[in-house]
Amino acid sequence: MAVTATNVYFLMWCLLDQHAVEQKITTNLDFYEFMAITNGALIIISLFSITYKNLGDTILEWGYSNAFRFVVLILLSIFIFALACIFLLAIHFHINASYSVTNAISNTVLSPFFGSLIVFFSLVSILMFFISNLERRSGNMFRLMSQSMGNSLKPKLVRRGFMFIDLNDATSLAEKLSSQHYANLLRDCFRLLNELVDVSPFEIYQYVGDEAVITWEMDISNADLKALQLFADFKAYLEENKEAFKKGYGTQPKFKCSIHSGEVVQSEIGKEVRHLVYHGDVLNTASRLLSQCHDYHTDVIISKGSVSNIKNVAEKYDLNLMVCDNLKGKENSIEAFVVTPKDNAATENTSETITFFLASKVTVGHFINNESKVLFKQ
């Protein structure tokens, strides 16, 4: 976005000033050379984009406000951009054997061309920050664009799958821990879950107390198997960090989940604050199936209708059919499977997935003990 906006800036510069292309920015630096150096600096700063995101998330994790994050990221962006420009200018003037590289760089930096470019880049950086903030709150860029264009204002029928993930013994944990520590426990758990969702074709729909709801489009290939694998990876991720959880909170959190899919109504509600929501019996059924986990002594239940290819799923999981005819608010019975990982599947999960994620993100969550001291951070 910054590259496109800056080149549009140069184009407008040429249109408004027909002689701009013919002008020398400084000695041994014409308009096209200045433009090429600027684009090179933009490519350099784009390489730091992932670092910027991680730094911004870290600043928020440290407890600083979003305003402080905004100031730090904008100033850092401007500094790196200016530094990259100066570095490329030094290379250019050195190659062209300028009489004095230092003087040539100084004249360029103090020229009105460079000053106006920095001001423009600052404005673009601010705009990009607000767009990234909106994207962060919307979930992803596609949802942001869809909401911005008004595509979700009118209710429409869509086919989606839903996974409800709920913390076991939430009431007793909330009583055992203080409100702040309980909130931190949920935050750490869902942060780990988010890392898995980010590299999957799924998305977080919403958080409701100690419950997370994940959704996906039903036309995703092997969505049933991928959903079960996601929860298995989440359990393995929690197991890998069990010592940190026990040290920080005195307990190891465990979750249960239910999966159901079908036709729901997608719409956007709210006026001052808008939300993309889904309505329908599918969500109600998924929620009711979640309550059956305790009765059937399992942590995973998937409705029979959500299993599109039972042969593929059965290769990694044992599926025990059950008929739920006592779901609250449901007149008709629901057929579902109690899911149990096979021994070879559990081994594969641990060896493949945990190695991949925890190789670089083993301490992504911050775990807090009773004295509110940070035990470790990334």
Model description:
The protein is an alpha+beta fold and 378 residues long. It has 2 domains: 137 residues, no CATH class; 211 residues, Nucleotide cyclase, GGDEF domain (Alpha-Beta Plaits, 2-Layer Sandwich), CATH 3.30.70. Helix content is 56%, strand content 19%. The chain is built from 14 helices and 10 strands. Strands 3, 4, 5, 6, 7, 8, 9 and 10 form an 8-stranded mixed sheet that branches. A two-stranded antiparallel sheet has the order 1-2. The relative contact order is 0.09. The C terminus is likely disordered.
Question: Could you list some keywords that capture this structure?
Answer:
single chain, 378 residues, alpha+beta, Alpha-Beta Plaits, 2 domains, two-stranded antiparallel sheet, 14 helices, 10 strands, 56% helix
Strand content bin: 15-25%
Given the helix and strand composition, which structural class is it? alpha+beta
Main beta sheet strand tally, sense and closure: 8 strands, mixed
What order do the SSEs take from the amino end to the carboxyl end, as H and E? HEEHHHHHHEHHEEHHEEHEHEEH
Question: What is the element layout, followed by pairings?
Answer:
Elements: H1 2-16, E1 24-26, E2 29-30, H2 31-46, H3 49-61, H4 66-95, H5 101-109, H6 112-138, H7 141-148, E3 156-167, H8 170-176, H9 179-198, E4 203-208, E5 211-217, H10 223-240, H11 242-249, E6 255-269, E7 275-279, H12 281-295, E8 300-303, H13 310-316, E9 317-324, E10 334-341, H14 343-361
Parallel strand pairs: 6-8
Antiparallel strand pairs: 1-2, 3-5, 3-6, 4-5, 6-7, 8-10, 9-10
Helix pairs in contact: 1-2, 1-6, 2-4, 3-4, 4-5, 4-6, 9-10, 10-14
